[in-house]
């Protein structure tokens, strides 16, 4: 029996609005609704009075939906396309009846499901295809949900699921809602996530490969007040203010701290019989009662010879002693008698976030006025913290962090499933589709015991080659042997990508000054292009990724091969132009032989 607050009504209220809620936080209807058009009868076309909607009038609503809600940026061309579409298909009720907002919501979700990127451009075909698919599922300016929009999600919730919906609306963890029902939109966006017909036409794993540029990856900062990640909009710089280094470790501390508080070991039980302490373990930090409490360093003042657990950053104090720091202060750390957890495989160095269990000892000699001790909040606390056990913060399983389904049908609450960490779409939006593709394309097939020949190699392989020094003649000879081995494999079974890691020269060739260094550097890449041209079947079917090192252009001209900032820009195209031509030639030759142009590329 449900409590009165969660008890479903005897007869669900009739919902006059056929459009279910598509909120990403719940992804379920507010009330159970009847399946729209269950008999499959054709939907009658409602009359719409088209209008000419200026883009400037639509801009505030589009900005609120795309930018503030979905972190997307609309170009002027995309805004013009959307204004024309909404004016034609929503008519005069685009604002009063909320028709435009629903259309913009579905367009934004479909764009993210297609991994269209942060900028929504109206000049390409992506937005036009989304609007074309949306146009066929609109009636009277409203988006209708037919059978073709959701092949696996039922639009009717049972009574048992209705109680779980109420739990979800109040922020409680749902108990038995499977992942497909709890994360899928009941609108147009399910077209992109659940369309298995499109997946069958793209059975090559390389079609789903996307190389993410480090300079285009979103930079996210954890917001403690919102308990969520915000996008960092500041411009990257090689010479940032000194405060950015402090913000770096502050953000790292906040991320680890919020993850640690979700750990069951740091959740105070309702009935606590005694105090817990760290125990020795071969793999992790364990405890008999699994209950810890973190103490801010500033709260150690006045609590002499009391036991605490600290989370902080290991560092070297100005006096040369080991210290631990958090957001409230710093204190000297004594690890003379500390035991590492795990004892046989733990490493600790300044700059690491650690957990320390021990006792605080006040400075009874009154030396807090010396260098490094001011005895105040935000500075170095007098005395020292004697550690008994020290270990790294325990990790968290991926499905718990994302808040996606775990093992079986259980669903983990909380997490960041809707956060797009890589700029290719969130796990909630694309996770189901990617997992289905992984099962189809990347999982190895079981060997056939009756067959005499071994199974062919997998297409979803990535070959990684490191320290490819092109100025060493032996390197090109060894590279030929490796490429010959993969080139002799059956068609359709060659690796989908080759990753070549620099430095591509054994010394900083551009640091000598003059033009001789750059000429030699280009000759090395021309030699590599000649070697790659001997294997057109690999060039036309694989992606070659070139990762520069500290000796490559142009950073080596300033650093002379020493450490340089990360990430690095790619090798300039003026040096790799012949390699690009080798790929273009291999793709053209494949078109002449098979009638289909190759899609090999060099990045």
Automatic annotation (TrEMBL):
GO terms for cellular component: epsilon DNA polymerase complex. One of its GO terms (biological process) is error-prone translesion synthesis. Residues 1-11 have a biased composition (Pro residues). Residues 1-24, 439-460 are annotated as: Disordered. The keyword Disulfide bond does not apply. Keywords: DNA replication, DNA-binding, Nucleus. The keyword DNA-binding applies. It comes from the Eukaryota. One of its GO terms (molecular function) is DNA binding. It is found in: Nucleus. InterPro entries: DNA_pol_a/d/e_bsu, POLE2. Residues 12-24 have a biased composition (Polar residues). Pfam families: DNA_pol_E_B. Its main location: nucleus. Residues 463-583 form the DNA polymerase alpha/delta/epsilon subunit B domain. Belongs to the DNA polymerase epsilon subunit B family. This is DNA polymerase epsilon subunit B. It comes from Botryotinia narcissicola.
